[in-house]
Amino acid sequence: MNQLNVPLSRRGFIGAAGAVGGALALAACGGKSTPPGAGAGPTASGAGTAYNGPNVTLAFWNGWTGADGDYAKQMVSKFNSETKNVKVNMNVFQWADFFQKMPAAVTSGNGPDIAVMHIDAIPTQAAQRVIVPIDAVANSLKLNQGDYAEAVWQGGIYQEKRYGIPIDVHCLGLFYNKDLFEKAGLNADKPPTNKDEYMDALDKLKSKGIQGSWVSPFQFTGGLMYQSLLWQFGGELFNEDVTKATWDSEAGVAALTWMTDLVKNGYSPKNVGQDADYVALKNSRNALNWQGIWQVNEVTKLTTAKIGLAELPKIGDKGGVWGNSHQFVLPRTQGSDQNKVEASAYFVNWFTQNSADWAKSGKVPAVEKQAESSEFTSIEGLQPFAKEVPDVHFPPAVAGISDAMTAMYDAVNAAVLGKSDPASALRSAANKASQILTQNKKKYG
User: How many separate helices (H) and strands (E) can be counted in the chain?
Assistant: First the structure.
């Protein structure tokens, strides 16, 4: 079932938050059940740089709908044309459908040989034994921690075992409307880099009747903006062992208050609709938008407005950028086909070694030397995002984490819409999330 023509959803970059950690992902296998063939994971005796075994066909599942799916389809076609003894058949689903189908398919023995997931999905799927540890595959590919940013490398690890092989990083950046900057007398080649510069730009824009920084009350992009600010103000989403939500800290309240003050002081409309902040940017009504890398390809092709791209400004004292990562995983299968394991390792190695091609879909290669290559640096618009990678934070590697995160997104929504003050909204949400974490500990172990 190929759905490459389904329009790209911005919210698809994390996947269906509830589906990953909740009932949708678990309905097929429930509780702590063990699907067929539950073992320690595959072995991979080959080096991963070649496959010399018999002809095999690999089923490859992912949620890359839209433009990124088109690039993946091109890469798979290229791989198939170059590799005579391995054929990859790619099926693409909406992320919510992906997480509905995967557990049932694995349990029935009809799961794919290779799949792609986001970092925040991996722990839940690992806890449910839908995917298997792949340390042997990572070792056969000679993956080296020094080749990745720390957060990227650690992102594929759950309970001290590697379940994911990093492909890319996708994160927030600053999108700004150069036409509006010029209208307000601002230098269109010098976007704000800190709080003072940001507020100065907003005041100049406001003097020209422009509400310059629209604040979204939704997860995309308000919830992602809030997380970035939380880290910039020195806060954390959870305590060290992820047993308690801590976003109601002083730093967390300061971060959300800064966002709500943008609304109160007239720098943003009071009720911004879903994606309206981004649409307004393109229509020269919003000047500054904390937006995801997945929009780069569109804005660089706009003819109606000139959109600049930059690193997020540091509103706080620290670097902090929301991000996520696609990673290859191996679903559990009935029995163990060593040829398929080694062919899968070869495909994973081939794909990740060609990450500069994949980056054209709007991603930063996970391997740092690839992000520094001329193939990548020549791609228009992506350099600010690559520079941010050292400051990127990922969700913690805890099963069911998306359930707890939903409470935080609800708090951001309530505060930005003026239904609650930031401190009360965050406190209530943190208490709810902490209860969810306790429940999930019992559910997943």
Answer: 20, 13
| Domains in the chain with CATH codes | 10-167+325-353 (3.40.190.10), 171-323+399-444 (3.40.190.10)
Average pLDDT over residues 99-122: 94
Cβ(92)–Cβ(63) below 8 Å: yes
Q: At 206, list the tokens.
A: 């406001």
The values of phi and psi at residue 108, to 5°, are -85, -5
The one-character DSSP state at 194 is B
Residues 6+ apart with CB under 8 A from 215: 222, 225, 259, 260, 262, 263, 268, 272, 277, 416
Of 402, 400, 410, residue with least CA distance to 439: 400
Rounded-to-integer distance, Cα 134 and Cα 43, Å: 8
With 80 as the cut, is the pLDDT of residue 300 above it? yes
Confidence of residue 395 (pLDDT cuts 50, 70, 90): confident
Helix or strand holding residue 407 (H, E): helix 401-416
Helix (H) or strand (E) holding 366: none
What is d(CA 139, CA 15) in angstroms, rounded to the nearest whole number? 28
Place of tokens 């959300």: 256
Query: Taking the alpha carbons of 242, 274, 11, 282 in that order, is the dihedral positive or negative?
Result: negative
Location of structure tokens 């495909």: 347
Q: What is the longest distance spanned by two Cα atoms in the chain?
A: 70
Strand, helix or coil for residue 283: coil
pTM over 0.85: yes
Give the C-alpha separation, 163 to 64, whole Å: 20
**Amino acid 18: pLDDT:** 38
Quick: pLDDT tens for 43-80. 544 557 889 999 999 999 999 998 899 999 999 999 99
Averaged pLDDT, 394-412:
95
Closest CA to 397 of 233, 159, 195: 159
Tokens at 163, concatenated: 């379940």
